[in-house]
């Protein structure tokens, strides 16, 4: 039931409860292979192993925040073009525009609905592929 081509997702989220809900939403409901990391540093350490086709980033995290993590991931040759999605409670239109300007393919507001998260991810993936 996964969209054509999208199987592996890397998620970076510092809140354990949100990671757990996202794992259920994306693995059990969406059928994806999810690698969930608690920090940008952990994501950079694991990215080569999980080879994500799409990256989901929390914006506000201790240490490296989502935008810094995305910039670091973009500096890796294999992931310069990998679609990225920010998940954030900060969803004012100017904030959303700033995330898109950083190269994000989409922004999903928190709290997200676990029952529709996989669909939202699939829609963003399909739009990113249509543009790319």
Defining key terms:
single chain, 132 residues, alpha/beta, 5-stranded parallel sheet, 5 helices, 18% strand
Describe how the helices and strands are arranged:
Elements: E1 8-12, H1 16-29, E2 33-37, H2 40-50, E3 54-58, H3 66-74, E4 84-88, H4 93-101, E5 106-109, H5 117-131
Helix pairs in contact: 2-3
What's this entry about, in short?
44% of the residues lie in helices and 18% in strands. The protein is α/β, with parallel strands linked by helices and 132 residues long. A 5-stranded parallel β-sheet has the order 2-1-3-4-5, sandwiched between helices.
Please give a structural write-up:
This protein has 132 residues and is of the alpha/beta class. It is 44% helix and 18% strand. It has a 5-stranded parallel sheet with strand order 2-1-3-4-5, sandwiched between helices. Strand 3 (54-58), helix 3 (66-74) and strand 4 form a beta-alpha-beta unit. Helix 2 (40-50) runs parallel beside helix 3 (66-74). The protein is globular and about 30 Å long. The two termini are 23 Å apart.
What is the arithmetic mean of pLDDT? 93
Kindly state the percentage of residues in helix. 40-55%
**Gap between N and C termini:** 23 Å
What order do the helices and strands follow?
A: EHEHEHEHEH
User: What percentage of the residues does DSSP assign to strands (E)?
Assistant: 15-25%
Query: Biggest β-sheet, characterized?
Result: 5 strands, parallel
Q: What characteristic shape results from the CA principal axes?
A: globular
* Spatial ordering of strands, largest sheet: 2-1-3-4-5
Structure summary, number of beta strands? 5
- Content-based structural category: alpha/beta
Low-confidence stretches: none
| Overall radius of gyration | 13 Å
Helical stretch tally: 5
């Amino acid at each position: 039931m996964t969209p054509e081509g999208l199987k592996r997702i890397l998620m970076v989220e510092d809140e354990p409860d949100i990671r757990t809900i996202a794992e259920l939403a994306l693995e059990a409901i969406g059928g994806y292979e999810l690698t969930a990391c608690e920090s940008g540093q952990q994501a950079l350490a694991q990215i080569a192993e999980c080879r994500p086709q799409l990256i989901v980033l929390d914006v506000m995290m201790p240490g490296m925040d989502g935008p810094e993590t995305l910039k670091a991931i973009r500096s890796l040759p294999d992931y310069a073009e990998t679609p990225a999605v920010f998940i954030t409670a900060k969803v004012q239109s100017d904030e959303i525009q700033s995330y898109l300007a950083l190269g994000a393919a989409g922004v999903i507001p928190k709290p997200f609905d676990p029952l529709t998260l996989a669909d939202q991810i699939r829609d963003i993936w399909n739009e990113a592929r249509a543009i790319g």
